[in-house]
């Protein structure tokens, strides 16, 4: 039995912004110790009773990644019969992903599909019938939440992967023939253009990754930035959207300096909202950093929501921000319409049009549904593949494709430096082994793993 | 007379088997039908090749004889794949065929604990599923604790040349008919395989001016760790080509070729097709390469490598004379095909012991392999395991991550055999670790443990191993006299650098043995890749290693599919990894099996 420590997101990614990261293996408590800071700092991990939940933060050094609930289950009373922990995340997909990356960077391995169930099975926790029913439940849930036929999707993906595999396999076969039939004249006719073959394979893998990522809008969502000068009600709007007291709301300008991310569902598409620091005329260094950050978020975000205060006249800072809207997907949101309306809409229309302007009141909730609808239209406009994703890649598949790409880049480098065929061939073999993990095939005959291949990641 | 071990068959498997068991202190008898053809090369007079060269190195490291034998009797040496990276370098050598056989005979003759007898095993007496006695063709009864059968192609051998067919072990020798019947009587399941060999032609009838010469390596690399330097008279080989006319003649006579008339029914090796198969399968090719390999300095017989055939003699002659340089050639021995019995190797354990009868071992071509090196590997392992069994010790089993021999035996006992099995480097998962250059460092420890390695040799190996370790470490901590911090090791990793470049920086390294220098260079250059393979080996040591019970009644596991019950019953795999590889065993069968075993 493999006895390293594994982790994975164990809830389907989709409309839900809440998810669980599961960790299993001997290093579970070490990693929890490292990355989890209980709210009640008096709790020591040794005295933490099995099967109880603690509230606190996931920290990366000094940086708080998310507030979470952590459950620990000491072996053998756990699903896998190993030491386990479950981190209930609230910060949405990006937070979940960054927690996952944090675990990976601390020496925990990403679980293969069905690996938790595999461990449960091998440690005698469940029998084969149970294992199969777990799989059925997972599949059913996935179908429901994504409203996409998994089978269709995996079919489209597996066909693409199969094509890629064939290309890599053919190259490998040629290389191996050159090695094993050294004396045969026939091999003199095999002069594979290794560079060109790798190029073709690289482009192929890259295009799968790209189209998989476009389907990813459903699983990973898109980024939206809420910007505006201090006290226009950005945090209040965020709270309204997420219906959670998540960001700090304050009358004192400039209290929300760090970007906090939340995820809301716009017709099934996760919209990751970044609240940016208050922007005002840079008087102090901290605020200046805030302004720069806000601008940089506007650059990075796929959608920008610029908030203006309807109860005040437009000032220079508003104008500067509006200038930055050029060439971006955006909405201008006029907030505080419950107060006397002082803003001059003509001035706004110098930078945008009526269609992209919306009036709301974060306090009363006025206009919020129209805001949702406008955001959806914006997403739709920006993404052609929104309606009908051919397939999507989960984190594991994406990781593997990225591995293959970096492996190919490395191989290309080795070819350029005239490295020997035994190593080139080994590199290509590794790409193939990687692919065979995606499709559940295994070059080295690892049949036993294939039953679990059908399982979604994390279960 | 009572023996610990009786080895039947004096070929490449049998010789390694009887030498290892007698060297391990077992009272051993070698019985073979013809003492004048010990370790005779029925086919190509050469040892080594891709993958095979690695096997020879491993046999040598474990204390076998083949490496020294070819170093002592070779006449043409070549390191293959030198342009493709050290991990796939494979040594190959032509042998002085007669001398090789004579040398091996003298080795067995001078071996203590070893008796030699010309004769044929015809009866095998088994009591309580244990080997008890054998009886020879001359009705000599001999008691024994174990029996290793290495009959090669002799078991029910039938030779085909054109329409002619006749019983033979190989051309000019009797087949083993009674033993074949006896093996079947014991309940062993057998099948038929085919192999073939080309004509031998008279050197004096070759027009050497019209063919291309192929030189031996100038500084041959020894096969054996014990050989310091190869000092042998070297002979050239030659290359020529078939042409359209050759192909036309064969094509026109396919209706007389036993491979196409239905006269030969069994399957031959795909990697070694006869010329008639080549021209049919690769009909678009106008020409095939032919190697002319002298069989020794004091014989005029030349082996026509690439022209294996069983077409009628008149067609052989007509076709071969169309080849450039061979226009007036005289055939001394005609090419032929041979069909023979083999046992389905799923019936044996990784120790090569037959699952149903204690003390009965099978080694070599009888297990479905082809090649002297594959045979010798098995002979050595069978000899060691027969001895260990008598000493009541655990069998010696090499894993796929330890040796080419491990891959060979694992493949044999777990995969469906559909053609004679040959080792290839691509069958080996951990090729960068299992190299020909480090075989002694990987395996000599085992050979020494069994008493098959001379202590002096072992100490020498150990010293070199230490030196490799120390100097590899040293060069990681020494830096070039430049501004950036570049260690000697990193410098050596550059594709254009060799150990000699390190010697320039550190002159005292130049006195190191060449083998040490070579090892350091390879280990450093391949370091990253070796590490990756090592971590893969670690990962694969999972459920794979779970052992399954001997002679287990699988029909009692109700959750297994009917096919799985039958297959597992038949193969009796020793481990989960073996069970998984059996065709028709589904993952859920494996799961069911594991659950059942936990319940046990």
Account of the protein in words:
The complex is a heterodimer of chains A (459) and B (600). With 459 residues, chain A is an alpha/beta fold. Chain A folds into three domains: 1-147, Gyrase A, domain 2; 148-216 and 392-459, tRNA modification GTPase MnmE domain 2 (Four Helix Bundle (Hemerythrin (Met), subunit A)); 219-382, P-loop containing nucleotide triphosphate hydrolases (Rossmann fold). In chain A, 44% of the residues lie in helices and 17% in strands. Chain A has 15 helices and 13 strands. Chain A has helices at 28-35, 92-105, 115-122, 128-146, 150-180, 194-215, 217-220, 234-242, 285-300, 316-323, 345-348, 368-382, 395-416, 421-439, 450-453; strands at residues 6-9, 19-24, 36-38, 52-60, 63-73, 84-89, 109-110, 222-227, 260-266, 269-275, 303-309, 330-335, 357-359. Chain A has a seven-stranded mixed sheet with strand order 3-4-5-6-2-1-7. In chain A, strand 4 (52-60) and strand 5 (63-73) form a beta hairpin. In chain A, helix 5 packs antiparallel against helix 6 and helix 13 (395-416) packs antiparallel against helix 14 (421-439). Chain A is flat and about 90 Å long. Mean pLDDT of chain A is 73; it is low at 135-153, 244-258, 277-286 and 439-459. Chain B is an alpha+beta fold and 600 residues long. Chain B has four domains: 2-153 and 187-194 and 340-449, FAD/NAD(P)-binding domain; 200-336, Beta Barrel (Elongation Factor Tu (Ef-tu), domain 3); 456-540, Arc Repressor Mutant, subunit A; 543-599, GidA associated domain, C-terminal subdomain (DNA polymerase, domain 1, Orthogonal Bundle), CATH 1.10.150.570. Helix content of chain B is 35%, strand content 18%. Chain B contains 20 helices and 20 strands. Chain B has helices spanning 12-23, 52-61, 66-73, 97-109, 177-185, 244-252, 258-261, 275-281, 313-320, 372-390, 404-414, 439-449, 455-476, 488-493, 499-505, 514-525, 527-540, 562-571, 576-581, 587-599, and strands spanning 2-8, 28-32, 46-48, 74-80, 90-95, 114-118, 121-127, 130-136, 141-149, 158-161, 164-167, 190-197, 200-202, 212-214, 237-241, 289-294, 301-305, 331-333, 336-343, 360-362. In chain B, the strands form four sheets. In chain B, strands 1, 2, 6, 7, 8, 9 and 20 form a seven-stranded mixed sheet that branches. In chain B, strands 14-15-16-17-13-18 form a six-stranded antiparallel sheet, with no helix packed on it. Chain B is globular and about 80 Å long. The two termini of chain B are 45 Å apart. Classes of the chains: A alpha/beta (459), B alpha+beta (600).
């Amino acid at each position: 039995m493999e006895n390293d420590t594994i982790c994975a997101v164990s809830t389907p990614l989709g409309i839900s912004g809440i998810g669980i990261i599961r960790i299993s293996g001997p290093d579970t408590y070490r990693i929890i110790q490292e990355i989890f800071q209980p709210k009640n700092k008096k709790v020591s991990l040794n005295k933490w009773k099995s099967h109880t939940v603690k509230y606190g933060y996931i920290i990366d050094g000094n940086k708080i990644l998310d507030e979470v609930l952590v459950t620990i289950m000491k072996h053998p009373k756990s699903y896998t019969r190993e030491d386990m922990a479950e981190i209930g995340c609230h910060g949405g997909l990006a937070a979940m992903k960054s927690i996952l990356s944090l675990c990976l960077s601390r020496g925990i391995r990403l679980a293969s599909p069905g690996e938790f169930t595999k461990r449960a099975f091998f440690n005698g926790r469940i029998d084969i019938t149970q294992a199969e029913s777990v799989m059925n439940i997972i599949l059913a849930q996935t179908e429901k939440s994504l409203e996409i036929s998994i089978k269709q999707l995996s079919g489209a993906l597996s066909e693409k992967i199969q094509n890629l595999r064939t290309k890599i396999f053919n190259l490998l076969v040629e290389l191996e023939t050159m090695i094993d039939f050294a004396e045969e004249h026939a091999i003199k006719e095999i002069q594979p253009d290794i560079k060109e073959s790798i190029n073709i394979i690289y482009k192929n893998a890259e295009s799968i990754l790209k189209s998989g990522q476009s389907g990813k809008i459903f699983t990973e969502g898109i980024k939206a930035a809420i910007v505006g000068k201090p006290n226009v009600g950005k945090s209040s709007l965020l709270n309204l959207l997420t219906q959670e007291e998540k960001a700090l709301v304050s009358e004192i300008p400039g209290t929300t300096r760090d970007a906090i991310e939340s995820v809301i569902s716009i017709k099934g598409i996760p919209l990751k909202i970044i609240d940016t620091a208050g922007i005002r005329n840079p008087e102090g260094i901290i605020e200046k950093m805030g302004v720069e950050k806000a601008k940089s978020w506007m650059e990075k975000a796929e959608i920008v929501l610029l908030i203006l205060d309807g109860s005040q006249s437009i000032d220079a800072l508003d104008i500067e921000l509006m200038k930055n809207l050029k060439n971006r997907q955006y909405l201008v949101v006029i907030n505080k319409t419950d107060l006397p309306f002082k803003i001059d809409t003509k001035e706004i229309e110098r930078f945008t049009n009526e269609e992209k302007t919306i009036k709301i009141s974060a306090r009363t909730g006025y206009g919020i549904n129209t805001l949702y609808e406008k955001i959806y239209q914006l997403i739709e406009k920006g993404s052609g593949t929104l309606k009908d994703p051919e397939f999507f890649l989960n984190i594991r598949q994406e990781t593997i494709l990225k591995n293959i790409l970096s492996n190919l880049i490395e191989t290309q480098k080795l070819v350029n430096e005239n490295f020997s065929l035994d190593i080139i061939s080994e590199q290509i073999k590794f790409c193939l082994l990687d692919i065979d993990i995606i499709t559940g095939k295994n070059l080295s005959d690892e049949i036993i793993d294939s039953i679990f291949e059908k399982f979604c990641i994390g279960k | 007379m009572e023996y610990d071990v009786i080895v039947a068959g004096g070929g490449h498997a049998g010789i390694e088997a009887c030498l290892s068991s007698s060297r391990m202190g077992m009272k051993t008898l070698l019985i073979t039908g013809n003492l004048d053809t010990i370790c005779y090369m029925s086919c190509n007079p050469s040892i080594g090749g891709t993958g095979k060269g690695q096997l020879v190195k491993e046999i040598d490291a474990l204390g076998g004889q083949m490496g020294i034998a070819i170093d002592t009797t070779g006449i043409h040496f070549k390191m293959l794949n030198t342009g493709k990276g050290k991990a796939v370098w494979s040594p190959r050598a032509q042998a002085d065929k007669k001398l090789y056989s004579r040398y091996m005979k003298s080795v067995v003759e001078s071996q203590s604990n070893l008796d030699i007898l010309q004769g044929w095993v015809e009866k095998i007496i088994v009591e309580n599923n244990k080997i008890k006695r054998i009886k020879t063709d001359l009705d000599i009864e001999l008691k024994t604790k174990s029996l290793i059968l290495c009959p090669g192609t002799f078991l029910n051998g039938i030779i085909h040349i054109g329409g002619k067919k006749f019983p033979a072990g190989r051309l000019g020798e009797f087949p083993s008919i009674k033993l074949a019947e006896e093996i079947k009587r014991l309940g062993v399941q057998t099948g038929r395989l085919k192999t073939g060999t080309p004509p031998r032609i008279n050197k004096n009838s070759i027009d050497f001016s019209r063919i291309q010469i192929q030189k031996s390596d100038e500084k041959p690399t020894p096969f054996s760790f014990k050989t310091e330097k190869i000092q042998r008279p070297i002979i050239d080989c030659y290359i020529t080509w078939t042409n359209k006319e050759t192909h036309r003649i064969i094509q026109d006579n396919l209706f007389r070729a036993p491979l196409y008339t239905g006269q030969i029914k069994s399957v031959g090796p795909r990697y070694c097709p006869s010329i008639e198969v080549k021209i049919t399968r690769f009909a678009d090719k106008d020409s095939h390469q032919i190697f002319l390999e002298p069989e020794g300095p004091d014989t005029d017989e030349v082996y026509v490598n690439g022209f294996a055939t069983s077409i009628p003699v008149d067609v052989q002659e007509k076709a071969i004379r169309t080849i450039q340089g061979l226009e007036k050639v005289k055939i001394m021995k005609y090419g032929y095909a041979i069909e023979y019995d083999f046992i389905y190797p799923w019936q044996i354990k990784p120790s090569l012991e037959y699952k149903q009868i204690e003390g009965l071992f099978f080694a070599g071509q009888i297990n479905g392999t082809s090649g002297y090196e594959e045979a010798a590997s098995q002979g050595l392992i069978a000899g060691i395991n027969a001895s260990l069994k008598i000493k009541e010790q655990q069998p010696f089993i090499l894993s796929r991550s330890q040796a080419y021999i491990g891959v060979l035996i694992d493949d044999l006992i777990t995969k469906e055999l559909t053609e004679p099995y040959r080792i290839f480097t691509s069958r080996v998962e951990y090729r960068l670790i299992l190299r020909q250059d480090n075989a002694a460092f990987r395996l000599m420890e085992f050979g020494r443990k069994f008493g098959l390695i001379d202590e002096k040799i072992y100490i020498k190996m150990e010293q070199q191993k230490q030196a490799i370790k120390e100097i590899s470490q040293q060069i990681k901590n020494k830096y070039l006299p430049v501004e950036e911090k570049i260690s000697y090791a990193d410098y050596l990793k550059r594709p254009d650098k060799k150990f000699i470049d390190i010697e320039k920086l550190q002159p005292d390294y130049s006195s190191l043995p060449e083998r040490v220098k070579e090892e350091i260079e390879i280990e450093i250059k391949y370091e990253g890749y070796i590490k990756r393979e090592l971590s893969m080996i670690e990962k694969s040591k999972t459920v794979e290693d779970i052992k399954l019970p001997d002679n287990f009644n699988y029909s009692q596991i109700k959750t297994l599919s009917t096919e799985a019950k039958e297959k597992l019953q038949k193969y009796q795999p020793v481990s989960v990894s073996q069970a998984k590889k059996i065709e028709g065993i589904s993952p859920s069968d494996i799961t069911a099996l594991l659950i059942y075993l936990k319940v046990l």
